[in-house]
Amino acid sequence: MSFHAKTPIGRVVNSIEETLIAVLLGAMTLIQFANVVVRYVFDSQTFEPISHSLGLPTNLLWALETTTFLFAWLVLLGASYAVKTRAHLGVDVLIDIVPAPIRRVMGLISVAICIVFAFLLTKGGWDYWAPFANLDATSGRWFPTGLQEVRGQGWYEVNDIAMPDWLQWMGAILNDGDRYEKIPRVIPYFVMPLSMGLLLFRFLQAGLHLWHGRVDRVIVSHEAEEAVEKAAVALKAQGE
To answer: What whole-number distance in Å separates Cα of residue 225 and Cα of residue 50?
Structure first.
């Protein structure tokens, strides 16, 4: 479903989101392709002597873990983007047969449930990530009632992804001045509070759109029919 931002800031934000999603997907593809080439070409019986003589790698140990983190970022950030663009699929049989006022009420009830759910996810995402950043988690089981001190886990590292030198300044902040051998978990896990916070924000936006009558649902509707109509128009234009 196409989405067109109405304000300059909205267009900039939308461009950043789309670019980031495209970069994540492209990086996953390139890393996995490179890993396949390294494992099945450089490490093959034919090229193995040449690979060893040239010092070429025969396995990218960090590829699988990197792809896993990139996929997590892609899915979690994509969830909030899909709410904004109303790209989440849903069953609209019931809401299409009721009058517009009832449809609006049903939409508001649905988005209210989604807001509560996204709020709980945001709290959970922060509480999980905060210890890795040596920050306090929230108290309260369901809703935050304050902050509670937790044992800092900023020294935790991932398994295989090496820490680049230009990020070693993080060791002075999170690791008592010691250098990291692998990247700290605070970096890849940051997607949890970030994405869940964005998801909450997008559902709040959707609720405002429903409240003001700009839309009557938060799911995509009749996406197949719209795609067929666009294809028919394109074919007709080509024939003319």
So the answer is: 56
Is 231 within the bounds of a domain?
Answer: no
Q: How many domains does the chain have?
A: 2
183 Cβ contact list (under 8 Å, min separation 6)? 157, 158, 161, 162, 163, 164, 167
For the record, the structure tokens of 147 come out as: 């902050």
Q: How far is CA 202 from CA 39, 81, 86, 150, in A?
A: 42, 8, 10, 30
- Write the pLDDT tens digit of every residue in 175-229: 999 999 999 999 999 999 999 999 999 999 989 988 888 877 777 655 555 655 6
> What is the domain extent for residue 214?
91-218
pLDDT tens per residue, range 144-184: 888 888 888 999 999 999 999 999 999 999 999 999 999 99
- Measure Cα distances from 197 to 86, 103, 126, 147, 235 in Å: 18, 27, 9, 18, 42
